[in-house]
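Before the break, one more example. Copy the sequence into your notebook; we will annotate it together after we see the structure.
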Amino acid sequence: MTTVDGNSRGPLHGVRVIELAGIGPSPFTAMLLADLGADVIRVQRPGYHSPANPVSPKNDVLNRSRRCVSIDLKSDEGRALVLDLVRSADVLLEGFRPGVTERLGLGPEDCSAVNEALVYGRMTGWGQDGAMALAAGHDINYISIAGALAPMGTAERPVPPLNLLGDFGGGGMLLALGVVAGVLDARSSGRGQVVDAAVVDGTALLTSMLYGFMAEGVWTAGREQNLLDGACHFYNVYECADKRWVAVGCIEPQFYAAMLSGLGLTGDKELESDQSDKTLWPALRKRLADVFATKTQAEWIAIFDGTDACVTPVVELGDVQDHPHGASRGLMVEVDGLLQPTPAPRFSRTPLAVPTRPPLPGEHTMRALADWGIPAEKLEGLRDRGVIVESA
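Here is what the structure looks like once it is written out:
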């Protein structure tokens, strides 16, 4: 667990962001910006909750650290209200299919007409153009096209890496970087721009290292045939006597020697032979698997504690805060009983605040809109006409 000075504001303090509510990577982008101190307003349609999102609003960690307002975007007054917010915003985020916000009257041209310096962040799976731009899809589809799914899994079949690689790594994280870069440019040029962030683009970018490996001839097609894909014995996971697992990543010779020492295998000629000899890898994986199976995970971790063997426990979700490093580093934080990852990265001069709990839909409608300069009498009229809704 971790705590941070309540006066902390983060390096993006003063940056105003409008998030048109969606699911997956675009809320992740908004969460990152809010974690870094931006004032993010999540705009959600009255009564809407996506059927694709199985998480209740009170537990939706991706929506933390920002306020939520409820506006009818399909009404003329609702669209006009959002454009009023755009006038004083630095960023607008949307994660719909191409053309949706244009049809709502909230596309890039509509917003640029009232705020030329606005950075318009667009998050899609396929991108704003291209052969599949209008097709449906999810993380598994985007990473399959980007070439990232094929190398992952067992020799028999690809295995999807949850939706961490595409939605969040190649999608939301890249949009956050693009938006911050756009804001920096707008601050100097006075002109905003559209940031077209596609999961397929970002995921392909994440595979850059592998293309260097292929060019060098040290990476071959197929799974469980290469250094990092589960083929070699010194970069793998092993089951222990208690059915728990350890991760082994001793690539360098000195780390490999430390692992063999901890296993009691120093002097074993076969294991001390050329680590890069792929013909030996299957047999050596079996040798190490047999040894690791003789002790529990805790026993092995005690043996390797304080060494450079690069042997660590495979920690389950929900247990990260109990690991000594997780606890000392404060990797997790609990907010109103909801366990979640601590904001990152860390800043020496503008440290990040503890996250606030995920908002309920429309929880902050009146106060947040007033804080952004909408007159109280106008808000009351919009509320009376059902254009905006504030939840109890």
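Residues 164-189 form the longest helix (26 residues). The radius of gyration is 25 Å. Try to locate both features in your own notes.
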